[in-house]
Amino acid sequence: MADTDTRLLMLIDDEPAQSRLITALAARDGWRTIVVADAETAIATLGTRQGMALGAIILDQWVPGDGACDLIQQLRQRRPGLPILMLTASASPLLAVEAMRAGATDYLIKPVAPDRLLTALRNSTTREAPRDELQPLTEKITGPADFDAMIGAAPAFRTALAIAAKSARGHGPMLIEGPSGTGKEMLVRAVHAASLRAKMPLRIINANSTPANSIESMLFGHEKGAFPGAFDRQIGALQHCDGATLVIDEVCRLPLGVQQRLSEFLATGAVRPIGARHSFRVDVRLIVCANLNLKELVGYGEFDETLFDQISQTTVALPPLRERPGDIPALARYFLARIGEQPGLRELGITEGALALLSAYDWPGNVRQLQAVLFRAAVFCDGDALTADDFPQLSSMISSDPLSGGNQHESAGVMLFTADGNLRPLEEIEADVIRLAIGHYRGRMTEVARRLGIGRSTLYRKLSDLGISEAG
Which long-range contacts (CB under 8 A, 24 or more apart) does 214-217 make? Predict the structure, then answer.
């Protein structure tokens, strides 16, 4: 891995505009970029003084074309420890699999968002387990857009789903809070699928990846000549979504002025494009997502209080994965089933040792990170099941045996020991087993009872005695 003092990047790219953009973005994190336009120059550069100081390589697949994987192999053979990120316009899972098997560290889909590029560079040059690795690709590996596809039995998670499901058929705004990677977009799609507007379009706008000087126009539209550069009239997303659902992701990134305009829209139902004399009434279901605590931001004066009051009437809080370790086995098996359906891959099992290792990690990138790490492991697995050996980065970061000690005592995702090494009370373990079963069999109580070897009446009695709701 790159030393902290080594911040030299080689970009293999023959597009001047893109090269300038990536060079400027990388400079934000202290990278100095060498740009080479072809494979031959790239190979030759590795042998120079600058080449020996490289900390990472970004390769645009367009340069070598069909030979991209061959070039990656050549680069990897000459510099085995050097991170190689491939930039491509293709979202093909098969190409990703081939590139990773050739030695690519990460796979970036154009147009790449600035934060995504910088995160990929940081992940590839640190010992930390990948967080958003393969994010654009793995997000395409999804199951049905419904609540049954939301895997988990942890009480806080089931409570969040219950609130979302109850509110899905309403028309008022909804706030979904949770750290990045907890599944907010997947929940949005489940809410939309269960709503009265399910047959209408769902549009998602990410406020963080949209320039601050254009987000207002994107939402509300503008008239021709409304400001310098407004050469044509533009209809905003709110008008486009009349009768449908609009999602604003990372709503906390909206400028305060735009937040106030959005608050006015929620109060009146009217949209007035920039430069327009008249407003237009529209019927839009607004769902907003935030990875920060908006109530705290209101207290700091960084989020509009009136808007917060309007959108927080229905609030769904998704917990981080570290707070639901018992869900990791079910999530892992679910993701492996989806991954196995991708071209070039096959469905794999996973051993208890591997599950214990996954459950011992705190997953700062949450469910999204778990999916990406499983994808990488599946690409390189030669056996029929993933073992702990297929996760070397996790193993290197977890110094103690994942099958012994502290909160790492788990069987099939159920914690057996307390933090001080003592066994947990049997009643607590039984409650966790039942929650795990409810999540694993997606709330099908007859199947839960059958698999636990008890009758339905006994199961419902235990739910009552243990204080567990049918939602998990």
Answer: 215/254, 215/255, 215/258, 216/255, 216/257, 216/258, 216/261, 216/274, 217/274
Q: Where are the domains of the chain?
A: 8-126, 155-317, 322-466
- The CATH T-level fold of domain 322-466 is Helicase, Ruva Protein; domain 3 (1.10.8)
> For each successive 10 residues of the chain (472 residues), what is the average pLDDT?
63 91 90 92 91 91 86 90 88 78 84 81 66 46 70 91 94 94 92 94 88 88 84 90 95 94 96 90 96 93 96 96 92 90 85 88 89 88 89 71 39 55 78 77 78 86 71 46
Instruction: Assign domain 8-126 one CATH number from 3.40.50.150, 3.10.50.40, 3.40.50.2300, 3.40.50.720.
Output: 3.40.50.2300
Closest CA to 329 of 307, 312, 350: 350
Axis crossing angle, helix 68-78 with helix 93-102, rounded to the nearest 10: 20
